[in-house]
Amino acid sequence: MRIMGLDVGTKTIGVAMSDEMGWTAQGLETIAIDEEKKRFGFQRIGEIINEYNVQKIIVGYPKNMNNTIGPRGEASQIYAEKLTEIFELPVKLWDERLSTVAAERVLLEADVSRKKRKKVIDKLAATMILQGFLDSQQ
What we know:
- Keywords: Cytoplasm, Hydrolase, Nuclease, Ribosome biogenesis.
- One of its GO terms (biological process) is rRNA 5'-end processing.
- One of its GO terms (cellular component) is cytosol.
- Belongs to the YqgF HJR family.
- It holds the Pfam family RuvX.
- It is a single chain.
- By secondary structure, the chain is an alpha/beta fold.
- It has one domain: Nucleotidyltransferase, domain 5 (2-Layer Sandwich).
- Helices cover about 45% and strands about 25% of the residues.
- The protein is built from four helices and five strands, in the order βββαβαβαα.
- Strands 3-2-1-4-5 form a five-stranded mixed beta sheet, sandwiched between helices.
């Protein structure tokens, strides 16, 4: 069973995919979106779901450090609800506090240039979100 992980932002969505066994997460791609223009990437997500036979979706849930839900967390909740409506798959919100910070640190330690970091950070954050969920299931 494949599980898809999403790191939802205002301009991009990082996408990660599990292996068939649900043990490891790999970064797949970054989808350009535009929250202001109501372009949310659902068509591309549907294509990925069909291509990989996705059975579950994990959406990063950016809680505040004091465990409250801010505007980005609310946006993730709404996005998860839309995914459930459109694709009729189980969608789970997964606490992603500091996943982007951790992804940035990994890329800095690997000496990846700023330009290249910008292209892959959301995909790496999605991978970290999904791997965190997969590890919790073991």
